[in-house]
Amino acid sequence: MAAPEPNLSPLAAPVISVWGVGEERAKLLARLDIFTVEDLLLHKPRRYEDRRKFLPIRELKLNEPATVRGIIVAAGSKRFKKGTRAMFECVFDDGTARLHGRWWQAQPWMADWFTVGREFLIYGKLEDVKKPRTFTHPETELVEPGDDEFVHVNRIVPVHPLTEGLTARVMRSLVWRALEKFETEIAEPVWSRFQVESSRVQESKGDTAAALKPSTFNLQPSTLLPSRANAVRMIQFPGELTDVELARQRLALDEFVALQFQIQSRRKKFEAASKALPCGGDNRLMKPFLAQLGFKLTAAQTNVLREIRADLGGAHPMRRLLQGDVGSGKTAVAACSALMALESGFNVALMAPTEILAEQHFRNFSTWFAPLGVKVGLQTGSRKSGDDSGWKMEDDKRVGPSSLQPPASIFVGTHALFTAGFDLPKLGLVIIDEQHKFGVAQRETLVRKGNYPHLLVMTATPIPRTLGLTLYGDLHVSVIDEMPGGRGQIKTFARTTEKLPKVFDFIREKIVAGRQAYIVYPRVEVADTDKDIKAVTQEFANVQKALPAVKVGLLHGRIKPADKEKVMAGFRANKIQALVATSLIEVGVDVPNATVMLIENAEHFGLAQLHQLRGRIGRGAHESFCILISDAQNAEAQARLKILEETNDGFKIAEADLKLRGPGELLGQQQSGAMKLRFGDLAEDLHLIRQARGLVAKMF
Ligand code: ADP
Ligand code: MG
Fold first, then answer.
1. Is the confidence at residue 385, as pLDDT, over 50?
2. 2, 85, 163, 418: least surrounded by Cβ within 10 Å?
3. What is the DSSP code (8-state) at residue 576?
4. 274 pLDDT above the threshold of 90
5. What is the pLDDT of residue 198?
6. What are the tens digits of pLDDT across the range 567-587?
7. Distance from the CA of 294 to the center of ligand 1, in angstroms?
8. Burial (CB count <10 Å: 0-12, 13-18, 19+), residue 524
9. Ligand 1, pocket-test mutation among 328, 361, 457, most atoms within 8 A of CB
10. How confident is the model at residue 399, as a pLDDT?
11. Does 460 contact ligand 1 (Cβ within 6 A)?
């Protein structure tokens, strides 16, 4: 597949080449990110109006938006009281009845615009049965008899997103003219040409059935989606409202194909440029490791490890995403993967998003690997500033990486691992834990530092499939879809602050029975601007009061790293029974004896984040309890908490989250760099994304 051709399409011409667009309008259009003819053609209408038949004003119904057409018979501004703002009102008549249009704030231009005798289209709704019939702040459009008249009436018309100085009518005219002049230039993209070829190829192999499966898009006569040119016309000036969705899907498919093409080209380029280090291992360390681990790997863990081993022994460096809900046992998988590389004589780096998590991994790996004779080093940002060489070894001697003699060393750390002049000899495998905390760009630079080591990224944020296919299209995905057995249930309750005293009684009961609790607040300190959001530094004392005779610890981001370590050690040893913390503990922390999680101001956390936090409990054999405290009244916040009460399935939660919030936040920094989707919807278009992925896979 050749590189995409440079964009010589006439559609790439500046928007000024559309008749009616001069310097001034070009500037206004730029505010809407419309720079080229193509941008204008793809300016997605925000709604449509069926103007084939106008509703008589007499037939307007309460709360049903409608467009009517009327001539102004009276207009003017009035002031109810001296000193108050003037409002503007005009009266439209369509021969069946009269309709008042009302704007609470009269603007100077209104009196000149809404003049008696002019005809307008008025879109709005009656909100009151009282007479006179009134639309408050309706959308209006002047009916100007002229060449363009047929663009604006007697059809379904688009109403576009606008900017001050550009009316709906002008925008519609511009789009119409752009279509008239450029429609024939709207070419089918390269991929669909290819699709025809690929069908032929398949035909020659006698496999027409597969090529023409009705579920896949193709350009045979039985085409299911419109051509791109038709789709553009249909999205702007649909013949029927049902055309709109078909057209949108076609244009979305083009977007997803382009996106997949980007992703998969990157992957191909990478594979062509890099040769894999042989890291498949020989079980020399693995066998004794598994024997002393204390539990048997789940079938899901074993399956994933089989995939990883195939990658590590394969021709191309591994690029794999390991998805597994919180508590599914990703660390053990990381350890086994590390051993494969170590057995093969290569070093391994393991990066965690927080110091606490890095410390925890360091401790785990040290215990696991010491009997195997594998050295483990730790590097975190704070450690580095306190101590030049920066490396902590299991015997607590600090040494530089050069004295960690390969083969067979593993380096654990935060991103400091890669920023601090990191240059490990014989780096065979990089493991990134909790991938969602790192952007794609970070991931790339990180791996490029080595000589194309294998890469395993692990995430507990179940990435909805749509996002997975788009964001991580350059990674292969493995899923741990099974929890280790012998775990207690997690029960989740949403409550209001009124119930807090009872909740604290409950927590005390559990602590007396030997368990431990996390108590989480959104803030470190109370902010002046929002005193209602609770903060750990303030609540710490309250918790101590509410839990007399309980040892309470405090943990947040502004505590010195050495002290953080101490607090975590105390909590692990059950010397601290209740840990008051910020969401700092959301990732990775693993203390199986902790069975209660109390989260106050729960509405201030995202759904995925609450699920992560909840993942800190339910790690041992005891039954666990998550209590979400919130007084929030708004529907979205309540919906979030309800989902958590109903399910513990991270995958369902992620999908719900995507629907509630849209993909923006989930994409986060990952979105920059990815192309902007005008028509594609990451929350809804799974089938199109799959189709696009399949199409692009055939292109290579
Ligand atoms: P996460 O996937 O969230 O990173 P962890 O790796 O922290 O999960 O594992 C959670 C807990 O489950 C740890 O205490 C770990 O030792 C334990 N664990 C992992 N795998 C198994 C298994 N196969 N059987 C029993 N316990 C396991
Ligand atoms: Mg983990």
1. no
2. 2
3. S
4. no
5. 38
6. 999 999 999 999 999 988 877
7. 11
8. middle
9. 328
10. 44
11. yes
Residue 301 burial (C-beta neighbours within 10 Å; 0-12, 13-18, 19+): buried
- Which SS3 state, helix, strand or coil, does residue 698 take? helix
pLDDT at 36 > cutoff 80: yes
- Quick one: angle between helices 635-646 and 607-614, nearest 10? 30
Whether the predicted model's global pTM rises above the 0.70 cut: no
Measured from the Cβ of residue 41, the count of other Cβ atoms closer than 10 Å reads 23
Alpha-carbon distance of 414 to 355, in angstroms, equals 6
What's the distance, Cα to Cα, between the start and end of the chain in Å?
A: 6
Q: Convert the pLDDT of each residue in 207-227 to its tens digit.
A: 333 333 333 344 333 347 889
Answer whether 18's CB lies under 8 Å from 177's CB: yes
If 0-12 CB within 10 Å is exposed, 13-18 middle and 19+ buried, where does residue 99 land?
A: buried
- CA–CA–CA angle 521, 522, 527 (5° rounding): 110
Residues facing 62 on adjacent strands: 126
The average pLDDT across 258-262 equals: 83
Ligand nearest to the CA of 327: 1
Alpha-carbon torsion (93, 98, 104, 106), positive or negative: positive
The set of residues, in sequence order, having a beta carbon less than 8 Å from that of 513 and lying 6+ positions away, is none
- Compute CA 374 distance to the chain's CA centroid, rounded to the nearest angstrom: 38
Please calculate the CA angle 110-115-117 and round it to the nearest 5 degrees.
155
Q: What is the pLDDT of residue 472?
A: 63
Please list, in sequence order, all residues whose beta carbon lies within 8 angstroms of the beta carbon of residue 548, skipping any fewer than 6 positions away.
none
For residue 588, report the distance from its CA to the centre of ligand 2, in Å: 4
Report how far residue 461's alpha carbon sits from residue 377's, in angstroms, rounded to the nearest whole number: 27
Q: Are 589 and 364 in contact (CB under 8 A)?
A: no
Tell which one of 619, 622, 624, 651 to mutate to probe ligand 1, the residue whose CB is within 8 A of the most ligand atoms: 619
Measured in Å, residue 456 CA sits from the centre of ligand 2 at 13
The pLDDT tens digits for 464-519 are 666 666 666 667 888 898 888 888 889 999 999 999 999 999 999 999 999 999 99
- Return the sign of the alpha-carbon dihedral for residues 289, 294, 296, 297: negative
| pLDDT of amino acid 7 | 60
Confirm or reject: Cβ of 553 under 6 Å from ligand 1: no
Cis peptide before 407 (omega within 30 of 0): yes
More confident call, 266 vs 199: 266
C-alpha to C-alpha distance for 616 and 7, rounded to whole angstroms? 51
Angle at 563 between CA 560 and CA 568, to 5 degrees: 125
Determine if the peptide bond prior to 4 is cis (ω within 30°): no
How many Cα atoms are found within 13 Å in the side-chain-facing hemisphere of 19? Answer: 8
Average pLDDT, the chain: 83
